[in-house]
Amino acid sequence: MNPENLELLSEHACFGGTQRFYRHESLEIGLPMKVSVFLPPQASAGPVPALLYLAGLTCNEETFMAKAGAQRLAAELGLALIAPDTSPRGAGIAGEANSWDFGVGAGFYLDATQPPWARHYRMESWLTAELLPLLASALPVDAARIGIFGHSMGGHGALTLALRHPGLFKSVSAFAPICAPSQCPWGRKAFAGYLGSDESGWLAHDATALMQHQPVAPYPGGILIDQGLGDKFLAGQLHPELFEAACASAGQPLTLRRHAGYDHSYYFIASFMDDHLAHHARQLAPAGT
């Protein structure tokens, strides 16, 4: 992986560390892609553990860093934060920007198999096979200590990528994730468009279905999910109860916290961000500490 492929767009001092925004020419996507990275003060002394945050529908690489309020505690805990864009940009596919829940800003963190999406919409391969190795080669990030979390569509991405790549990710959590996308309108629309009409192929990207087929608990340190009970998408789109049941069946420790009055916004995410950072810091700590 060539670290020279990482172009620094801007850099800002932040809580003793640095907030950076990058662009690189992605071979997997076939287009330029953007990512934001927060490096804590401890990164000046050597590689630090990192959290990959996957944002939700309509968001981009700036949303989390500007709205979640994560950098302060990440700086104290010595955690790097990585927030990629949510889809390819500029693919030139007819209609790709016509809908807020499919196409631009809605890559669903999978590799599309259907034309015309299959050429550029390769988000899973970009993240796991290209972006993380690139950042580990170019920045003081410890590739052996990476956690993943996300919100909504990004919560779906965090859970599914964690279950599909347990050797890559050592910890996982989510805010208001789409827990059973093959059973909700957002997921069914995305899966039909990106993966085709054969619904059996969808289950490889459905966190509830993936958890149901785990021979052993993949994350014995536990998974953390926070869900607002005032979330207008809860009943129709998110279905955390299905993932909760799948975890119970698989023996996977899960802390699913339901919060009265909280909605789907970044006000909700910011309210419980510290708990998620602490959850990951514990699981990413060096053995014996």
Describe this structure in words.
The protein has helices at 63-67, 71-77, 123-138, 153-164, 185-195, 207-212, 234-238, 240-250, 266-284, and strands at residues 6-14, 17-25, 32-39, 48-54, 80-84, 141-151, 171-175, 223-228, 254-259. By secondary structure, it is α/β, with parallel strands linked by helices. The protein has a nine-stranded mixed sheet, with helices on both faces. β6, α4 and β7 (171-175) form a beta-alpha-beta unit. The mean pLDDT is 97.
List the secondary-structure elements in sequence, H or E. EEEEHHEHEHEHHEHHEH
Q: Helix count, per DSSP?
A: 9
Oligomer: single chain
Overall mean pLDDT: 97
Structural class: alpha/beta
**Beta-strand residue fraction:** 15-25%
Q: How many strand units?
A: 9
Main β-sheet, in a few words? 9 strands, mixed
Low-confidence stretches: none
CA distance, first residue to last residue = 32 Å
Break the fold down into its secondary structure elements and pairings.
Blueprint: E1 6-14, E2 17-25, E3 32-39, E4 48-54, H1 63-67, H2 71-77, E5 80-84, H3 123-138, E6 141-151, H4 153-164, E7 171-175, H5 185-195, H6 207-212, E8 223-228, H7 234-238, H8 240-250, E9 254-259, H9 266-284
Parallel strand pairs: 4-5, 4-6, 6-7, 7-8, 8-9
Antiparallel strand pairs: 1-2, 2-3, 3-5
